[in-house]
Amino acid sequence: MYEKKTFPNLNCGLDLVGEVLYGKWKMRLLWFIHEGNLRPSELQRKIPDASRRVINIQLKELEAHELVVRKIYPVMPPKVEYSLTDFGKTLIPVIAAIGNWGDDHQDNLKRVIAKAYPQLD
């Protein structure tokens, strides 16, 4: 697994949140788990652009940060499900607010993103 070579700066709330939520798919994983998509295969279907490996790495990081908990059922083949911890549930209103902000400003966001990626036009 990837090992960070520099220590994070944890001097303020934004640094702390960034350290825990940094990762392209983490907020979406938390949201989809909140919506009831608990199995890794369900999450993969919800985020088809993410590789299974990246989803697994980010789920492990969310688990290490105590935002999700993994339950392994003793069946063959093994069944794994993720759920939000009480701590993880506290992020859902924040993620919802960010999503609403994105919806409210999507025209402007699409315009500025298109400038950064001219090949999207």
Automatic annotation (TrEMBL):
Keyword tRNA-binding: no
One term of GO molecular function: DNA binding
Entry keyword annotation includes Transcription: yes
Keywords: DNA-binding, Transcription, Transcription regulation
InterPro entries on file: HTH_HxlR, WH-like_DNA-bd_sf, WH_DNA-bd_sf
Limits of the HTH hxlR-type domain: 12-110
Taxonomic superkingdom: Bacteria
Record protein name field: Transcriptional regulator
